[in-house]
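Okay, is this right?
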Amino acid sequence: MSSNAPQIDLPLERSRLVGIILGGVSYGAYLLLTVQAMIALMQRPRHGQKIANNRRTLLCYTLITFALGTISFACNTKYTEIIWIDLRDTPGGPVALIENAMYYRINFLAICCGYVMQWLMQALLLYRCCLIWNWERYVMVPMVALYIGMIAAAIVVLVQASTGAIFYKINATLVYFAFQVAHTMLYTILVAKRLLHIRGQMKTALAEYDSSTYDTIILMVVESAMTYTVFIIIFIVGFAVHLDSLSTLCFLSINQVQGIAQLFIIIRVARGRAVTDVWPTGNTRAVPTILAFAGTTSIPAEGSNVAQVARPEQDNVNELCSVSAKFAEANV
């Protein structure tokens, strides 16, 4: 009779319940931002051009990642219901059900969908970074290596989880999320470095050039990356020191937080909010810098000097501004 007595681990039970509630809140925010992103992406550009092809691609990307996140959250929500309602009389009680979650296929499906969603989001970061660096090999190699390492670690986690292993004891989970942190941070550093370099060249070429577009992009990239990175680090610390309640609390919202972080950038750029103008000073004409979506962009190599092509004529000034806009667009 004692073997059937429920295990008592109130912090773990509370973390599961509170975690799914916070997951519902974050999912609501994710749903709202997804709808806003879809509306913004389907709107025609301001000057009446056709909707760019990459907007359609981002629309599909947004829908696919949202569908995966929805399936993952729905499975986690259903299993939470199973813990306290359907199988509440299971030997060991809710604690045993939480710890042995991988024995139930619904949790394996939740992890699979969540991991595929994260792969797609990290793939978008990889594409952005390679595009803005003109597919330079010394940039692609470390980024691709981290991405492949991340997927390999995830496959190990999924293989072990499919055998019914206790999730909190699958050490490959730490490796997987460590790869994600490294990939995200390297992306942030490389993109910020590239944009700072080009901003310096543009300011050298044009004394009246408004560099606030680059500042805006860098700020968006850093904010988006740091939000998700800090959240993952908290999960990693909790998982590493076996604070199952903390890792459970974070894990149930981790997909939504990553989705929200990326949608902030997509929505802002799709709406064209990052638009600044240099106010006229004296006889100087304002030079606009616009952050918008674009298709294929041709970005000069880092070693090239934008200042070399600057001339007094207004046509050449506009040409430089066009190059500036392409740098901004490539980051999205």
